[in-house]
Write a structure and sequence with these properties.
The complex is a heterodimer of chains A (136) and B (504). With 136 residues, chain A is α/β, with parallel strands linked by helices. Chain A is 42% helix and 18% strand. Chain A has a single domain (2-126), classed as Rossmann fold, CATH 3.40.50. A five-stranded parallel beta sheet of chain A has the order 3-2-1-4-5, with helices on both faces. Chain A is globular and about 40 Å long. The two termini of chain A are 28 Å apart. The longest helix of chain B is centred in the first third of the chain and has 34 residues, at 106-139. The relative contact order of chain B is 0.18. Chain B has 504 residues and is mostly helical. Classes of the chains: A alpha/beta (136), B mainly alpha (504). At the A-B interface, loops of A face loops of B.
């Protein structure tokens, strides 16, 4: 049993991590943090750099719940999160919601929407709201 | 004085609204493709060759020159911020440049690269204006046997001197010569397999697009998903007084290395950038900083690669011999207007040549203005997903190949040679000897047949001119040195995954 967090090194990822950690502690379940990339561009800003990964790992180690970090190259972002949820028997997926214009959504698609529609467990959609930043 | 008048005339032509627009477009495109690893000025020019059907020769060449220079600027950005050279000419820049960026001095590294490129490009273009006409004046007096020898030297030099493996170089060269043989231009059909569509030979545009664009696209498709690289965030490039003091000498020394190497038939920017780096490391008062991000190690090589870009235009304009892939495609562009390239170019097309030379000064200045404030924007280009980029490239490649003669058969050839391009990248064969072989092979044959016709079949005519004898002696000497080197130091077995990163 686990809580899966869809992470990215920005405010949306951090708020998702914050809520995910709280939920994992409340349910006393494993915290699975997923930060995938499609690896099809030279630079992907939503994929944590080495130094960001070590800060993240340190933050996870400080938590009281057991945690796991997945940082990998995959063909499909939402698919990777759903796969992590399936593997670990997730009871909740936490995802940060980014504002998108209709055109932007048409062009870029929405990972959050796919998670909400395809996940087999409840999905918690959060927005940056000044909740505790675990990486600070 | 004569050159100066002609150059001023060139400025007059290059500064018209239309040509200025093409110059700006060229430097923009050039910087963009320079920033993106894998996509380089040669591929871009190959894809843009069809515009020569609808745009005047001066505008097209001005744009192409802008792309050529712009590619040299853009390559440094990727080297410094990403530690992945955008172009083969900026491999050395990555050594110190990326270290500087990691120390938080990315802005200074970008600034010294951009300003150094400007200084070197301007001096190099001045030298080009001074030397090219007089070189052309000498070369135009040479007979066919000497021209034959010079082309032979160019083929030999790009194959044997550049690149890591001579065997691979010669394989690529002979592949190119073979493609150049196809057709019936000499009166007898060669390698046409009885196909009337092959009787006119394979259009070089199709070959260039296939090798550079299709080959690279297939290669990227085969390695689509790679771990993204850590990019170093950067603000506005700027330099302190101390950085200026440490940069200006390397800029000038880099120019001194780059221009002559560019002008030699065995041109290219790899050797001078490396020499410049080694020299700066020796001469620097801060030699302890080398390997940890010394500004001299960025300033010198960046100046060298731009100066060599200017240098490669000397043999291109004055002799009609291309020594880099980009120069080879520029030669194709000139030829596609029905203009005969060679030493007579300065006499037959003075307006065109001088407008091109003037546009180099303009393009260089534009590049400095563009690159200093826009560096963060260029870095954003690296976030474009490769499938989008290469879908566009494949589209333009097919369009370009089809528009050559509106024959669906050309698309089949495009695909076949594109697969050859993929195989060459897989097995580490350099692309340059192939493309030079395709372009210069027929010229070599033409010079040979003309010489033999004049001498009514007497083969000794080939060494009847002093220049030819000197060139042959030079080739022989180089051969002896290469063989001697090969015999003396038995090379360790090369690792199996030694795939040369081919930058098109």
């Amino acid at each position: 049993m686990s809580v899966v967090v869809m992470y990215s090194p920005d405010e949306f990822g951090r708020v998702a991590l914050s809520y995910g950690a709280t939920e994992a502690a409340r349910r006393s379940e494993r915290l699975v943090v997923v930060n995938p990339t499609k690896g099809d561009s030279f630079v992907d800003q939503k994929f944590a750099r080495e130094d960001e990964m070590s800060t993240l790992q340190a933050a996870l180690d400080r938590l009281e719940v057991e945690s796991e970090l997945r940082h990998e190259v995959v063909p499909d972002i939402a698919g990777a999160v759903l796969a992590a949820a399936g593997d670990t028997g997730a009871t909740l997926i936490v995802v940060g919601i980014r504002p998108r214009t209709p055109v932007g959504k048409l062009l870029l698609g929405s990972v959050a929407q796919r998670l909400i529609l395809d996940a087999e467990c409840p999905v918690l959609a959060v927005k940056p709201d000044g909740s505790e930043d675990l990486l600070a | 004085m004569d050159s100066l008048d002609l150059l001023l005339g060139g400025f007059q032509q290059a500064l018209t609204i239309e040509n200025l627009f093409y110059a700006i477009l060229g430097v923009f495109l050039g910087t963009a493709v320079g920033v993106l690893p894998g996509i380089g000025p040669a591929m871009t020019l190959a894809l843009l060759l069809p515009i020569t059907y609808s745009v005047g020769p001066d505008s097209a060449l001005i744009m192409f020159a802008g792309i050529y220079y712009g590619g040299m600027y853009g390559g440094s950005t990727t080297s410094i911020l990403l530690n992945t050279p955008g172009e083969s000419s900026s491999v050395v820049t990555a050594i110190e440049g990326n270290k500087m960026a990691k120390k938080g001095r990315a802005a200074q590294a970008l600034a010294t690269a951009a300003i150094g490129s400007f200084v070197a490009g301007t001096i190099g273009t001045l030298l080009l204006v001074l030397f090219a006409p007089s070189v052309a004046g000498q070369v135009v007096k040479l007979g066919n046997p000497s021209n034959f020898a010079l082309i032979l030297l160019a083929l030999f030099a790009v194959t044997a001197v550049l690149g890591t493996s001579r065997l691979r170089g010669f394989i690529a060269l002979f592949l190119g010569l073979t493609i150049g043989l196809v057709g019936g231009q000499t009166g007898q059909a060669r390698l046409t397999f009885g196909n009337p569509l092959l009787a006119d030979g394979i259009d070089i545009v199709v070959v260039a697009v296939a090798i550079f664009a299709i080959g690279e696209a297939l290669w990227v498709a085969a390695h689509l998903r790679r771990r993204p690289l850590d990019i170093i965030p950067v603000g506005q490039p700027w330099m302190s007084r101390e950085d200026w003091g440490r940069s200006w000498k390397p800029w000038l020394r880099g120019t001194a290395f780059g221009f002559p190497f560019g002008a030699l038939p065995a041109g290219g920017a790899e050797i001078p950038t490396f020499l410049s780096y080694v020299t700066e490391r020796k001469l620097s008062k801060h030699s302890d900083e080398f390997g940890k991000g010394a500004i001299e190690g960025v300033a010198g090589p960046e100046a060298a690669n731009n100066a060599s870009a200017a240098g490669t235009l000397v043999p291109l304009l004055a002799i009609g011999l291309p020594t880099t892939a980009t120069a080879a495609i520029m030669l194709l562009a000139i030829q596609s207007y029905g203009i005969e390239t060679g030493p007579q170019l300065f006499d037959t097309e003075p307006d065109l040549v001088w407008a091109l030379l003037a546009s180099l000064f303009i393009g260089n200045t534009l590049l400095l203005l563009l690159n200093l404030p826009l560096a963060p924007l260029w870095a954003k280009l690296l976030q474009i997903p490769r499938p989008y980029l290469y879908a566009g490239i494949l589209f333009f490649a097919s369009l370009g190949a089809y528009s050559v003669s509106f024959q669906p058969f050309d698309l089949a050839i495009l695909l076949v040679i594109g697969l050859l391009g993929l195989a060459m990248r897989r097995f580490g064969l350099p692309v340059l000897p192939l493309i030079i072989g395709v372009i210069l092979g027929p010229k070599l044959e033409e010079q040979l047949t003309t010489s033999l016709q004049i001498s009514s079949g007497d083969i000794s005519t080939l060494w009847s001119e002093p220049v030819a004898v000197i060139v042959y002696a030079f080739i022989a000497l180089a051969l002896v040195l290469i063989v001697g080197n090969g015999l003396r130091t038995p090379k360790p077995v090369e690792p199996a995954d030694d795939k040369e990163e081919v930058s098109a």
